[in-house]
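FORM 12-B: Structure-to-Sequence Request
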C-alpha cells in the first residue's frame, strides 16, 4: 500500500471518522487516500486555522485525537494557533503537514530556503507540541505514526505533528515489514504506594478540617472521570468548585457545586474557596485566573493538596502558589483510590459549612434581576441565562473568548450530561465557530450544538459559513454583538485612561452579519431586544439546519464582577459588597490594607489587571 494510504487507514482504524483538511500540492496524496477507505472521511474547511480549531472541537467531544491535514509552507504555518490551543488545553491532536519533495529540502539550517513553499514547520511548532518530526525515510512511517499517537494520548495529552515529504507519500510500503513503536518501553508508571500514603494523609487532615473544599480542573474531564468525581464529592459532602475548563465536569445542578471562582468568578462564590481550611485541587494548574495577582492571599488559611498528571506541575518550585502536598497521578486513578479508601470511613459533619457556601453561591448570583428588564438591546447576561434554561441536558455549547466567554461563564448554568467547551489556555478569537463544527461531527447528531461568539471573533473565521453550507452542519450560532472589542475596551478604560484605540468604533467597525450570512445561503436572524430573546432561542434550537443569529447587545462591556488590580484578593471584587457584609462573610482575617480599597474610576490609582485577550 502507499504510505499515504497507511497513514489514513491507521487513523481510521483508531476510530477517527472525520479529519479536517485544506488541500494543497504537498498533501494531495494524503487527501487522495480518503478515496480508498470507507472508514473515515475528510471535511474540507476554507482555512487551515479553521481545520485545526475543528479538530480540537472534535477531540474534546469525541474523546479521540482530532486530526488536521495541511500543505507545506503557509498551510502548515496556519496551523500554529490551533496547535497552541491543543498544547495549552491538553487536547490530543495529530497535525499532519505535507512537505516539499525530500530532494529539495535545504541541506543546512544556514540556507534560508531551497524548495518552493519549503518551511521547517517542525522547528516552528516544537515548543508547542509533545512531539514533532519530519519523516526522514518512508519506512519510518509506522514507528513515527504510532509514537505520535502514543504521545498525543498518554500522560498529559497534547498535540503532535508529522511532516511528510510529498514524494514519500506515494511510495509503496509494507506494514508487516516496518518496525513499530514499543509503547511499553517508555510508558511511565505512578508510584501507587506513595499516592496511597498521601491519600491517607489527606484523610487524616479531613478528619480535622472544618471548612474543606475541592477545586476541579479540566484534567478530570480528560480522564473521563466526571461520574467518579461526583461520587467522591457525595461521599465527602463538601463544596466542589470547577475551573473554567471543568464547567461540564462539575455542572451547575450538581448538589455540591459551589460556583465559579477566580478573577472573573463571583463575589460570594470566591468566599468559599478563600475561607477554606483544606483545599484539594485535582487536574488543574493553579493559574492567575484562579488566584488573582496577590498570590499570598489565595486560600491563605488552607492546607493545600494538588493532584496532577504533569510532573512539572507538582514541583513546588514551579508552582505559582506552592502547595503543601503534591501528588503525581492520573486524575481517574487518584479518584478511584480515594473512593475506595473513603468507603466505610466516618468523616466529621461539615454540613453547616457546605450549606453556607451554597447559600453564598445563590445569594451573589452575577445575573441580576434588572438584566431581564425590557430594553432596546439584549443584555448578554440575561441572554446566556435564558439560553442555559432552554438548552437540554445532552446539548453541547462551544464558546469563544473575551467578553462573550466572561458573560457565558458568569451566566450559563450547565446541566449534568451537557458539554461546555472552549479554549482557555490560548483563547484565540474565532475558535468557537470552527470548534463547534468539529464538535457537531463528533456528536451523535441527536442533540443541539450551539456556538457563542463575539462580533470580533466571528469576523476572524467568517469564511467558514461556507463550510456550514457545504456539509449541512446544523450548528446554531449566536453572535454576541456589542460592536467593539469589549474586553479590550474594559482594559483600556482601567489602564490607559479610556483611550479606546483600535477597539471600536475607532479602528474597528462591525459589518452587517445578517447580509453576509444570507449571501452564503445560510438562514440568518437578528435579535434586537431582551423581550424576544427566549422566543428567538427556542426557534433557533428547534430549527432543523444551520442558523446564525446576530444578537445586538448595544455597547455592553460591563463584565462584572471582577477583580481590579494585582494587589486585590479574589474575595474582594468589583462591584464591591458593602464593607460590613464583606467582613461578615469572611471567616478568616481580611487582608491588611484592603478594608476600604479604591474603586475603579476614582482618584486612587488602579494597578494593571489581567484581561482575556
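FORM 12-B RESPONSE
SEQUENCE OUT:
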Amino acid at each position: 500500500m502507499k504510505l499515504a494510504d497507511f497513514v489514513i487507514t491507521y487513523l481510521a482504524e483508531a476510530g477517527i471518522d472525520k479529519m479536517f483538511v485544506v488541500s494543497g500540492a504537498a498533501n494531495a496524496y494524503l487527501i487522495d487516500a480518503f478515496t480508498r477507505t470507507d472508514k473515515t472521511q475528510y471535511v474540507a474547511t476554507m482555512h487551515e486555522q479553521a481545520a485545526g480549531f475543528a479538530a480540537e472541537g472534535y477531540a474534546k467531544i469525541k474523546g479521540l485525537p482530532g486530526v488536521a491535514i495541511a500543505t507545506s509552507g503557509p498551510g502548515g504555518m496556519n496551523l500554529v494557533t490551533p496547535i497552541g490551543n491543543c498544547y495549552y488545553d491538553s487536547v490530543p491532536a495529530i497535525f499532519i503537514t505535507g512537505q516539499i519533495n525530500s530532494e529539495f529540502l535545504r541541506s543546512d539550517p544556514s540556507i534560508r530556503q531551497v524548495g518552493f513553499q519549503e518551511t521547517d514547520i517542525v522547528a516552528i511548532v516544537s515548543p508547542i507540541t509533545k512531539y514533532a518530526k519530519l519523516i526522514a525515510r518512508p519506512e519510518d512511517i509506522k514507528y513515527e505514526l504510532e509514537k505520535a499517537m502514543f504521545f498525543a494520548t498518554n500522560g498529559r495529552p497534547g498535540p503532535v505533528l508529522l511532516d511528510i515529504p510529498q514524494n514519500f507519500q506515494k511510495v509503496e510500503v509494507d506494514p508487516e515489514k516496518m518496525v513499530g513503536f514499543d509503547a511499553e518501553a517508555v510508558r511511565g508508571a505512578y508510584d501507587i504506594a506513595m499516592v496511597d500514603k498521601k491519600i491517607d494523609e489527606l484523610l487524616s487532615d479531613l478528619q480535622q478540617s472544618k471548612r474543606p473544599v475541592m477545586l476541579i480542573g479540566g484534567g478530570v474531564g480528560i480522564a473521563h472521570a466526571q461520574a467518579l468525581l461526583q461520587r467522591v464529592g457525595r461521599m465527602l459532602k463538601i463544596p466542589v468548585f470547577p475551573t473554567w475548563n471543568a464547567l461540564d465536569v462539575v455542572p451547575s445542578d450538581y448538589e455540591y457545586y459551589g460556583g465559579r471562582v477566580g478573577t472573573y468568578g463571583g463575589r460570594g462564590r470566591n468566599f468559599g474557596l478563600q475561607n477554606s481550611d483544606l483545599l484539594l485541587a485535582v487536574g488543574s494548574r493553579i493559574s492567575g485566573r484562579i488566584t488573582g495577582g496577590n498570590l499570598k492571599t489565595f486560600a491563605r488559611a488552607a492546607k493545600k493538596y494538588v493532584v496532577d498528571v504533569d510532573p512539572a506541575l507538582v514541583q513546588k518550585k514551579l508552582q505559582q502558589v506552592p502547595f503543601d502536598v503534591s501528588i503525581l497521578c492520573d486524575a481517574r486513578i487518584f479518584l478511584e483510590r480515594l473512593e475506595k479508601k473513603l468507603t466505610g470511613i466516618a468523616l466529621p459533619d461539615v454540613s453547616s459549612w457546605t450549606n453556607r457556601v451554597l447559600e453564598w453561591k445563590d445569594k451573589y448570583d452575577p445575573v441580576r434581576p434588572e438584566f431581564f428588564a425590557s430594553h432596546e438591546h439584549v443584555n448578554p447576561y440575561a441572554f446566556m441565562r435564558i439560553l442555559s434554561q432552554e438548552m437540554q441536558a445532552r446539548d453541547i455549547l462551544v464558546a469563544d473568548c473575551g467578553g462573550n466567554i466572561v458573560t457565558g461563564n458568569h451566566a450559563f448554568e450547565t446541566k449534568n450530561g451537557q458539554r461546555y467547551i472552549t479554549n482557555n489556555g490560548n483563547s484565540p478569537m474565532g475558535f468557537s465557530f470552527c470548534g463547534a463544527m468539529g464538535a457537531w461531527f463528533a456528536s451523535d447528531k441527536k442533540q443541539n450544538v450551539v456556538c457563542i461568539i463575539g462580533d470580533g471573533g466571528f469576523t476572524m473565521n467568517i469564511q467558514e459559513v461556507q463550510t456550514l453550507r457545504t456539509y449541512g452542519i446544523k450548528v446554531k450560532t449566536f453572535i454576541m454583538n456589542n460592536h467593539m472589542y469589549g474586553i479590550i475596551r474594559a482594559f483600556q478604560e482601567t489602564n490607559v485612561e479610556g483611550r479606546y484605540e483600535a477597539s471600536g468604533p475607532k479602528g474597528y467597525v462591525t459589518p452587517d452579519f445578517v447580509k453576509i450570512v444570507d449571501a452564503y445561503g445560510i438562514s440568518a436572524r437578528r435579535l434586537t431586544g431582551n423581550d424576544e430573546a427566549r422566543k428567538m432561542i427556542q426557534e433557533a434550537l428547534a430549527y432543523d439546519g444551520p442558523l446564525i443569529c446576530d444578537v445586538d447587545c448595544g455597547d455592553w462591556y460591563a463584565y462584572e464582577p471582577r477583580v481590579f488590580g494585582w494587589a486585590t484578593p479574589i474575595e474582594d471584587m468589583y462591584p464591591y459588597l458593602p464593607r460590613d457584609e464583606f467582613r461578615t462573610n469572611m471567616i478568616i482575617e481580611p487582608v491588611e490594607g484592603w478594608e476600604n480599597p479604591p474603586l475603579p474610576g476614582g482618584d486612587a490609582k488602579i494597578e494593571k489587571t489581567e484581561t482575556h485577550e
